[in-house]
Amino acid sequence: MTDLSILSGKTYFIRTFGCQMNLHDSERVSGLLDSLGCLQALDPKDADIVIFMTCCVREAADTRLYGQCSSCKSLPASPSGRRVVAVGGCIAQRDGEGLLTNLDNVDVIFGTHSIAHVGDLLADAFADGDRHVRVEEIDSGAATEMPWHRETAYHAWVPIMTGCNNFCSYCIVPYVRGREKSRPMEEIVDEVTGLVRQGVRSVTLLGQNVNSYGRDHGSAPRFAELLRRVGETGVERIYFTSSHPKDLLPETIDAIAEVPAVMPQLHLAVQSGSSRILKLMNRKYTREQYLDLVDRVRDRIPDIALTTDIIVGFPGETEEDFEQTVTLVDEAKFAQAFTFIYSKRAGTPAAEIDDPTPRSVIQQRFDRLVRHVETTAFDYNQRFLGTTVPMLIEGTSKKNDAVLQGKSPWNQTVHCPVPEGMDARQLIGKILDVRVDAARTWYLSGSSLGDPR
Q1: Annotated binding-site residue? 69
Q2: Is 19 annotated as contributing to ligand binding?
Q3: Which residue, among 411, 408, 416, has the nearest Cα to 449 in the 3D structure?
Q4: For 30, which of 290, 375, 392, 447 is 20 to 30 Å away at the CA?
Q5: Which CATH superfamily hosts domain 4-134?
Q6: Spatial separation of the C-alpha atoms in residues 40 and 48, rounded to whole Å
Q7: CA gap 348, 170 in Å, rounded
Q8: Whole-number pLDDT of residue 1
Q9: Looking at the domain that runs over 388-449, which CATH code has it been given?
Q10: Contacting residues for 19 by C-beta, under 8 A, at least 6 apart
Q11: What is the pLDDT of residues 243-296, one digit of tens each?
């Protein structure tokens, strides 16, 4: 039996790459290590345990991981004299023991379904000096029972399901996160209720496709019902991600419109504006269906901040296909769009498609798309000029400690000078009304009105 006491007093550092699900996994790992008597370090040079929580959605993630692991070789000796380097997350799930060949200084590998066993793996590595790997194919759900170490007291990530059944042709996620598995609704509601008692004001419900929540239990999707139940817990702000267009039901749109705690922001990844490319991507909707969905959402929630993901350079994308993406951006009028150049992922169907398009052409298209996205984002923010928005304060601007930074209900970044006579550190997690005096492409700024609450 593993002696976990060997970890007591050890220092640890976690670096996270990728999506919000990875961030939440890191919080769980951190919470487990805290419970075992470990101490968090702010820099890898001060850590006995260095953990990289990885993402494998894009090829650059692999290169980045190898560079980060290699850099650990040049770190000074750890406080205890023995440093254990671990790799978890999606790359670990995908490559398993294969990583040991390419990363000769890595001691522990754990997959996405094995984070509950991190303590045992690390303790064994310290005890015997060997390399340890655990990559399970099925998620037992044990991770949801782990303690967690939240980075902020006012916000929490709340996973409602794991896995994905969609198998978009470019995406590795179903292979590393497994099939969809929904948590019981009562368990989620109880968790959020407990978080509210702890002072959490904002939660983000997490899933690869939250719109299909509950379908794996043999029923119709129940995400709308879940939103209403979570809205009754007393939490002040509810966000969620990700939301697949093909599964966004009218009752979910109604819940967003009718539940006061559900914020008027919807991330609805389109990926391409060309129906031909969407079919190759296996997205299961057309350009026309997506735009019709946007119209239905806006009819019900006129001020909604609609955000999206777009891939440029999918294999076989022509200039005509790309132009359809540009015109869709202009029609949909996104408040924000996350744009990516296609990255081939071994093991996905799209990786087998040959594409003669020069990289320079793809880059030019990407740059053009970014300019259109910047225009729609700027135009969306203009409607807030002269209005008052409630900002949930997250801290201060990286550029100026005298300026508060936070989020509006529409998930916009908001800047505001620290009110005279107040300590910015004591304002974190409070809500402050801000009169918007300037609306830029990626943020709003203004002056405070009234007292923080």
Answers
A1: no
A2: yes
A3: 416
A4: 392
A5: Cobalamin-binding domain (3.40.50.280)
A6: 10
A7: 6
A8: 67
A9: 2.40.50
A10: 55, 57
A11: 999 999 999 999 999 999 999 999 999 999 999 999 999 999 999 999 999 999
The Cβ-side half-sphere exposure at 299, using a 13 Å CA radius, reads: 7
Residue 56 has pLDDT above 90, yes or no: no
| Residue tagged 């650990």 (tokens) | 72
Assign 177 a pLDDT band (cuts: 50, 70, 90): confident
Q: Quote the pLDDT of residue 142.
A: 60
pTM: 0.87
Band (160; pLDDT cuts 50, 70, 90): very high
Rg (C-alpha) for the chain, rounded Å, is 23
Q: Which of 13-27, 117-131, 180-194 has the lowest mean pLDDT?
A: 13-27
User: What is the CATH class of 150-382?
Assistant: alpha beta
Pairwise CA distance, residues 121 & 108, whole Å: 7
Please state, in angstroms and rounded to a whole number, the distance separating the CA atoms of residues 321 and 325: 7
Q: Is residue 416 part of an annotated ligand binding site?
A: no
The closest alpha carbon to 173, from 160, 182, 163, belongs to 163
**Known binder of ligand: residue 55?**
yes
pLDDT score of 107: 94
Residue 164 assigned as binding residue: yes
CA distance 295 to 275: 18
289-302 pLDDT, tens digit each? 999 999 999 999 99
Q: Give the 3-state secondary structure of the chain.
A: CCCHHHHCCCEEEEEECCCHHHHHHHHHHHHHHHHCCCEECCCHHHCCEEEEEECCCCHHHHHHHHHHHHHHHHCCCCCCCCCEEEEEEHHHHHHCCHHHHHCCCCCEEECCCCHHHHHHHHHHHHHHCCCEEECCCCCCCHHHHCCCCCCCCCEEEEECEECCCCCCCCCCHHHHHCCCEECCHHHHHHHHHHHHHCCCCEEEEECCCHHHCCHHHCCCCCHHHHHHHHHCCCCCEEEEECECHHHCCHHHHHHHHHCCCECCEEEECCECCCHHHHHHHCCCCCHHHHHHHHHHHHHHCCCCEEEEEEEECCCCCCHHHHHHHHHHHHHHCCCEEEEEECCCCCCCHHHHCCCCCCHHHHHHHHHHHHHHHHHHHHHHHHCCCCCEEEEEEEEECCCCCCEEEEECCCCCEEEEECCCCCCHHHHCCCEEEEEEEEECCCEEEEEEECCCC
Per-domain residue ranges for the chain?
A: 4-134, 150-382, 388-449
How far, in Å, CA of 71 to CA of 349, rounded? 34
